[in-house]
Write a structure and sequence with these properties.
CATH superfamily: Gcn5-related N-acetyltransferase (GNAT)
Helix content: 25-40%
Structural class: alpha+beta
Distance between the termini: 12 Å
Oligomer: single chain
Number of helices: 5
Number of strands: 7
Number of domains: 1
Strand order of the largest sheet: 1-2-3-4-5-7-6
Largest sheet: 7 strands, mixed
Length: 182
């Protein structure tokens, strides 16, 4: 059974590896190949080790764990934008576990966190225009594309068109009940 829980410092390595694998698979052409083919894991390890080292009241990272293995994660920045609200900065699931409900569960728990902290806040994210599968996922969860913009430079360099998806009312994302979450 998959457990959704707050990430801990000990999760940094697993989150970094999952993040790097997801970028290598989905972000070619936006991020520089030299970066993706290099030691992107070390870069992500540094980022996640710092983010998860100590709690931060303005951020929340959740992991999906199955039998002790991190199979997905979400990173949220509360109240990141005065218009759009909290930012879902990262949402990734292990490739072999895509379409198994991990992303849906993580998004639901992220929405709960936003509602608990700032009930009037919206939720938004940026998705690369080339990532049509992610766009379909967000659209199927009542996300509305509200903006298109050139984003970057990304870690390691590169720029790409991205779409902002928004949920002015994140309660539409909350699944009832939250069994298996913790």
């Amino acid at each position: 059974m998959i457990l959704i829980r707050p990430a801990r410092a000990a999760d940094a390595e697993a989150v970094a590896e999952l993040h790097a694998e997801s970028w290598r698979r989905h972000y070619r052409g936006a991020y520089l190949d030299s970066y993706l083919d290099g030691d992107v894991v070390a870069d992500r390890r540094a980022v996640w080790s710092e983010r998860l080292a100590e709690p931060d009241a303005d951020r929340c990272t959740l992991v999906a764990v199955d039998d002790g293995e991190v199979v997905g994660f979400a990173h949220l920045v509360f109240d990141a934008d005065p218009t759009w609200g909290s930012l879902l900065d990262n949402l990734h699931a292990t490739f072999l576990r895509k379409r198994s409900g991990i992303g849906t569960r993580l998004v639901s728990e992220v929405a709960r966190a936003v509602i608990e902290r700032s009930p009037a806040s919206g939720l938004h994210l940026w998705v690369l225009e080339q990532n049509t599968a992610a766009q379909a996922f967000y659209s199927a969860r009542w996300g509305t594309c509200v903006e298109r913009a050139m984003r970057g430079p990304f870690p390691g360099g590169g720029h790409a068109q991205a779409l902002r998806f928004a949920w002015p009312d994140p309660t539409v994302l909350v699944d009832e009940p939250s069994a298996g979450s913790g």
